[in-house]
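hey team, just a heads up i'm posting the complex here instead of the shared drive bc the drive is being weird again. everything in one block, sequence lines first with there labels, then the predicted structure for the whole assembly after. its two chains so it's a bit long, scroll down
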Amino acid sequence: MSRNVSGQSYALTVITPILDGHVPALTEHLEALPEGPASPLARVPGTHLARWVVIDQVKYQGRGQRHRDRLSASRLLFTSNFDGELDPYLETLRTALGEDADAVWGHCRGYPGHQDRAGFADWLRSHALEAALFFAAYGDRTLEQVRADVDKRTRLIAFALGAQGLGAADLKARFMEAFPA
Amino acid sequence: MANVEGRATAITVLTPYKRTGRLLLPIVFWIGRNVTATLKKLQMLSFIHYARWVIVKRFPDGGGGEKLRYPYLMFESNFNGSWDQYIDAFSEVVPARMKGIWGTSYGFPGPIPVEPFKDYIRANEYVANHYYNAYPGSTTTEIISAARVAAALDDLRARAGSLDPDAFKAAYEDMLTAIQRDL
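-- predicted structure starts here --
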């Protein structure tokens, strides 16, 4: 099994080179993206937690590290923790992000654009790295299941508070009404 | 800058490691993947949604990748609570594992005492420029509890139709008792 998989969860790690001189514009764009439910990533089904991070340069540790490394190009890191398999997710990413994908990865070298179906997936795949270790606390739960579980818990707490002191017949009737089959 | 989204915090760390890491890290991560105690320990840190470590031997460039003088170790985590609490927990609960993982990285001071460890992580951290969380209101613990509650509720719902009111009331109360810690 892939090291990127835990349960049904997949850890995608993509690192792409940023075009010379594009770091400020890309950074500004990413930081201006709407957050929460308005984030473009909210449109990509099955995405639990994801991020874009500009790696302008690797860091030097000082004393003890003999040589100072330098990346020839800054990098954009994209990670996503999502449901299911990679290929369908990359296609979902392409169609759901659409022009938002271009506005981000268009600052990176060789990006083919979201309208190139095969090119888009190939480009991301060719810049992907495999996890050495992936931990998922609830890797067997899909995003839909998580949301449904949380909703059921909230509704049961409300029901239990409201049902205190009810007789058996009323309790059963209210339960069947509150949690229809 | 967006390392926090709802109740989740993002951490992203990239560190160069020594020649010894080329030998040791594959073993450390093999143990991590194959000896369940490691993942169980992480589960004890019940505030982590997802975490990963990635070995970067070459930085992808569309071709063979860009090789630097040193290989790098990337770490990302999505957790609840404050950054300080998170590093404190790593230092207190899994110090040996932290040493195994970062022990070959240049400049790593060790997981204990915690202040130099925090300084090290802070110095090598990259702040997310955009961070997305599909359930900003939920902690890891709540999500795991909710799965148990939903399973118990579904089970009762499936049986409810065939129970007379008194038997239903008893089953309902048994269910609440069984999941009381998850509510």
